[in-house]
# Entry
Amino acid sequence: MLFKKIKHKNFDYTPRFYKPEIDEELKKREKFSFRSNATRSRTWGKRNIIFWLLIFIVVIYLYLSLS
# Structure
């Protein structure tokens, strides 16, 4: 009992009255094309470096102006 892992219960729900050809939300999702996570992470990485560089410059400026 001490080493028994707890397993999550599987949830498998198949809707009874679902018609994908009528689903408007699915059509909207297919209409819009979103960027992949890989391109988002690359741009966020560049923004992150610029953000920390700006904070570093502000800290140096405050240190030099107050001393």
The longest helix spans residues 37-66. The radius of gyration is 25 Å. The mean pLDDT is 78. The chain has two helices and no strands.
